[in-house]
Design brief:
Layout: E1 2-5, H1 9-19, E2 23-26, H2 38-53, E3 57-66, E4 73-74, H3 77-83, H4 86-96, E5 101-111, E6 123-124, H5 130-134, E7 148-159, E8 174-176, E9 179-180, H6 186-192, H7 194-209
Parallel strand pairs: 1-2, 1-3
Antiparallel strand pairs: 3-4, 3-5, 5-7, 6-7, 7-8, 8-9
Helix pairs in contact: 1-7
């Protein structure tokens, strides 16, 4: 059984489209570290979740990256949405940038406690913050870092005035191929989603892993 670590059942439904019924939800509140990139955040969460569940886990982290702002809000997308609001982010792009290009990125992190063979997809073997998971010094069982396999999905578009009533978060201001994500139905959005693209990569690899 593969445990998808999330409080959002919609993510699990999307994962099952690529991975089948072997995926189940794990509602576990792992520690989200502060980092400029998605990968270390997801990798850290996967290690902590694996130690909690003691079975294979999949953790994702995602964000909106505006090119003209050097990727901001990026890993801080949820915080920016909660504090500034989506419309404020759009107005900031309008006021400050001529280049409206942006992209949604998702990084999936997989951990099953075992090593990985070398492949084109990156493996995170760093474990600097293991002790923070328990608030204690590392014990003998945690002297070896847990390797984490990473898979990235990206969808590129641009920031526009809000359109559409569907989706959530930044969907109304992110346009892809002439339509905002909020103007797409669920099937259209899932077909091009950053998470879906990462799941597709993971699914192909996971079949061989099993």
């Amino acid at each position: 059984m593969l445990r998808y670590v999330t409080t959002n059942p919609g993510k699990v439904r999307e994962a099952r489209e690529y991975l089948g019924d072997a995926v189940s939800q794990l509602d576990f509140d792992y520690t989200e570290i502060q980092a400029a990139d998605l990968a270390p955040i997801a990798a850290r969460g996967a290690r902590e979740a694996y130690r909690h569940a003691e079975e294979p886990v999949l953790v994702d982290d995602a964000g909106l990256f505006v090119r003209g702002f050097d990727g901001f809000p990026g890993p801080y997308s949820a915080y920016a949405e909660d504090t500034l609001g989506v419309e404020a982010v759009r107005r900031l792009v309008d006021a400050e940038l001529d280049d409206r290009r942006a992209e949604f990125r998702c990084v999936l992190a997989y951990c099953d406690g075992e090593p990985f063979a070398a492949t084109p997809d990156p493996v995170d073997r760093d474990d600097r913050v293991t002790a923070a998971a328990t608030g204690a010094e590392r014990d003998d069982q945690e002297t070896e870092p847990l390797p984490v396999k990473l898979f990235e999905g990206v969808v590129r578009g641009e920031i526009v005035e809000a359109r559409g009533d569907g989706g959530f978060g930044y969907d109304p201001i992110f346009e892809y191929d002439g339509a905002t994500l909020a103007e797409m139905d669920a099937a259209e959005k899932n077909a091009i989603s950053h998470r879906g693209r990462a799941l597709e990569k993971f699914g192909e690899w996971f079949v061989e892993r099993q």
